[in-house]
Q: What sequence folds into this?
């Protein structure tokens, strides 16, 4: 029986989470970590709607210069990971290790975009954003500025 690429990547992620010091992270690991955090934000209100999925795919494609099909596949992997794990710490640790301050602020901005994708900020989404910002060493001021930036862009669109 042949294993699917998604299972292979999921197995790699499981190894990464089990022994983060065992081997240096690969670029795909960061892709998965960011995707997991974005999907976690989208599912905080117990609903993962098509608008949120579309925003995440667009953000991942832009951030990592991925073709649409790869971004779609990455969201699928992240969704499966979120369903099977209650922990965000391994993913936030990886982003701290692999992203500079500006990139982490941009990640918070991406999370705000996902949180507002359905037009409503759920209290659980807001709580997650506060928690993730703290875990990735983004200040409250930078988190609020990222939120204001996203809200200003949304206001221009509507």
A:
């Amino acid at each position: 029986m042949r294993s699917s690429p998604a299972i292979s990547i999921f197995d790699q992620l499981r190894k990464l989470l089990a022994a983060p010091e065992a081997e240096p992270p690969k670029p795909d690991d960061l892709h998965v970590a960011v995707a997991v955090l974005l999907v976690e934000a989208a599912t905080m209100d117990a609903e993962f709607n098509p608008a949120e999925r579309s925003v995440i795919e667009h953000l991942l494609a832009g951030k990592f210069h991925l073709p649409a099909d790869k971004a779609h596949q990455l969201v699928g992997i992240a969704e499966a990971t979120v369903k099977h794990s209650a922990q965000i710490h391994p993913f936030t640790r990886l982003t701290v290790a692999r992203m500079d301050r500006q990139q982490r602020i941009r990640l918070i901005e991406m999370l705000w975009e996902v949180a507002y994708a359905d037009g409503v900020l759920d209290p659980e989404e807001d709580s997650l954003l506060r928690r993730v910002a703290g875990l990735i060493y983004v200040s409250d001021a930078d988190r609020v500025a990222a939120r204001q930036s996203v809200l200003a862009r949304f206001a221009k669109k509507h």
Observations:
- Confidence is low (pLDDT under 50) at residues 20-27.
- The first helix runs from residue 5 to 18.
- Helices lie at 5-18, 27-43, 50-64, 68-84, 89-98, 101-115, 123-135, 140-157.
- The chain has one domain: 5-157.
